[in-house]
Amino acid sequence: MQVVDLMNAPVYSVSPEDTVGHVKNVMLKHKIGRVAVAYEGALVGVIAKYDLVKMLESSEAGWRRRNQDRTLAKTIMSENLITTSPKTLIGEAAREMITNEIGCLPVVKDGDLLGIFTETDLVTHFATTSTKVQVKTIMADAFLTCHRHHSINHVLRDMDRNHIFRTIVQEGNGVPVGIITHTNLTFAQEPSVDSKDIVMVRKADRAGVQKNRYVRKVLQVAEDIMSEPLITIQDDSKAVDAARVMVKNRIDAIPVVKDESLVGIISKTDITRKIAG
Predict the structure, then answer these.
(1) Domains along the chain?
(2) Which of 99, 125, 135, 150 is most buried, by the most CB atoms less than 10 A from its CB?
(3) What are phi and psi of 234, to 5 degrees?
(4) What is the pTM of this model?
């Protein structure tokens, strides 16, 4: 099977002089995770949700997006593009994505942009196959967690430091209740209040008895933007079932459980890596 059989076309594009606010609106309107940036008909860059999330990191106490939405597309777009041909085999395209740690390949022929080939296209195809490989054989066993009352800046810093782009949100007792991904961070609404009081619990001593409570003022916390209820999958389930859940629910990753314990997470990238071989 070739890239042309699965790619998305036409490609939604913006101008280098368009604002980030406009880019977000295009993504929301067309339910897409990336847009091409074109100047005088020529492809000059790509903007993905990841690029938008990188803008959110700030050392300031607050989390503000008004000024960010006025930023121009050309200042955040990825310019050193790796493209592919419509006749490239999908396994080869998947290897290109994994090797270069990218989630899409613009599809070009004779200098013309014909479409865009993404991890989502590969996962959608994988969901139609009959492979019996289990989730636990391709999942990632390294994953991030945060407390539901952790600040958004805390979540962003943890993702960036660990180069992991999703966080499972837990209660204080470790029970998972939601997940935060690039989509949640990119399209979350700015809080309508200046701050709110969050009651936290800290351990009184090294023995670990949680009894000291304190109040902290924050602008917005993990529970405000997380996706819930949390969708999970058992580690001995088929990977194709995970792919089908991702496609049906338009999500990028699923926490993996064994019995009731978190043991990993399976993402579109993991499935892409499996296709790459």
Answers:
(1) 3-118 (3.10.580.10), 135-276 (3.10.580.10)
(2) 135
(3) -75, 150
(4) 0.83
